[in-house]
Design brief:
By secondary structure, the protein is mostly helical. It has ten helices and two strands, in the order ααααββαααααα. A hairpin with a 2-residue loop joins strand 1 and strand 2. The chain starts with a helix and ends with a helix.
Amino acid sequence: MRADPAAELDARRRLVETALDAALPPESDWPATIHRAVRYSLFAGGKRVRPLLVLAAGEAVGGATASLMPLACAVEMIHTYSLIHDDLPAMDNDDLRRGKPTSHKVFGEAMAILAGDALLTRAFHLMVELPAHVSAEDARRRVEAAAILGEAAGTSGLIGGQVADLEAEGGGDIGAATLERLHRAKTGALLSACVRGGGVLGGATGADLERLARYGDAVGLA
C-alpha cells in the first residue's frame, strides 16, 4: 500500500511543531511578554516548507531526523523573524499576516522588534547548542550548516534582498535581472540553505552535495 503523501507531510509538520515548541522557553518564563510575542508569530500558521526541505534533503542522503531538527527549527525561526520585521511600519507596514494582526499591532513596535531579534538569536544558539558526547564530525557538520544559514540570512541573502526591495519601492521598472537577484536573495537564499544545510548535516559530500546545492538553487528561484 502506498503512503498518503498529504498524511506524511502532516506527520512531518507535527514533528517540526513539537521540536519548535521544545526549542523555546514557555510563555510563563520571565520576561513573559517577549515569549508570548515570539510564540504568537512562530505558531501563527504556515506550511513549514523550509523545515520540511531540511528534513527531506538530509534524509535523502541518510541523515537521522533528530540530527536535522536543529537546522529545521532554526530556518523557521529566521523566516519568522524576517516576517515580523518586514511587517513593521518602517518597512512594509502590514497590519495582517496569515489573517491575524501582525506582531507590532498586538505587542507594539518595540516588542515586535525584540521578538524578531529573539528568534534570530535563538536560531543560531540552537545550531551551536551541541549535545553531550557529540562526535567531531557531527560538530563540524553543525558548524558548516550554521555558516550556510548565516550567509543566507545576511547581507548577501535575505537582508540584502530586503534592502533591494526597499530601495526599489517607487522606483518604477527595476528590470528582470535586478528582480531576479532580489528574489534570489530575499526568498531564494534561505530556501537554498535549507537544502544545502540539510545535505551537509545528513553527511552528503562531493557529487551528492553538489547536486543538492543545484537543486536548492532551483528551489530558491521557483
